[in-house]
Design brief:
mainly alpha; globular
Length: 248
Amino acid sequence: MNKYIEGFLSAISFFTLIPVRGNHEISKNTMYFFTITGLITGLIAGIPYLLLRPYSSFIASAVAVSIIVIIYGFNHFDSIMDFGDSFMVRGTDAKQRVIKDKYTGSGGIGMVFVIYVPAIAFLTFFSPLSGFMVIIAGELVSKYATLLSMYRSKPFGNGIGSMFMSMVGTGSLWVNLVPLILIVLFNLYNLVIASGVIIIAYAIKTGMDKQYEGLNGDLIGSLGEISRMLFYFLAFVFLVLHLNLFLL
């Protein structure tokens, strides 16, 4: 099998619950298709939003966000809860210990509300077509911000996060930029929004790196969830300010 086809299939198989036949190895080629998984997920979640939005903005938004969480196998949802718990304690050793334990406390539950409730709320303000585009663009930016957070980062521990950090190279960053061109076609202002989200996400990543003395899979996954919510928020701000072109 062509190594790039194998990379695409392994990315779909590992990062989503979308069924793919066969067992596919994770390799550096997998990371070339990291952002594509966001495009596919955004399309799958965006279609129900497009169909339900004329009847209920809340139901459409809640269903779309729920589908996104499910497609990723609740992995990032779990990451947010672990990050929330570790965020509440002080000291590097304590943060590293709490983020890796199996328990969920009030910090984890609180972080779920902080990330997902606003995400659903922001989506309710868009029209069916514009919300559909925002969902797709949000996934693309979320995945790219996640990928960038792994580039040349120092891991703590020897988990899956460490493995993926070792696979992200300069080539991965350039190849994954290609799908982001789509969001500029949707709306020229998305270029500003996407750039802002990626810059903020990288700043958060830098802060995490200092607080935890490295990154792990939960922190990386959390950055992706935070980035999506930030994209929805900034898109909402631009909507309120009437800074809209084309479909938004």
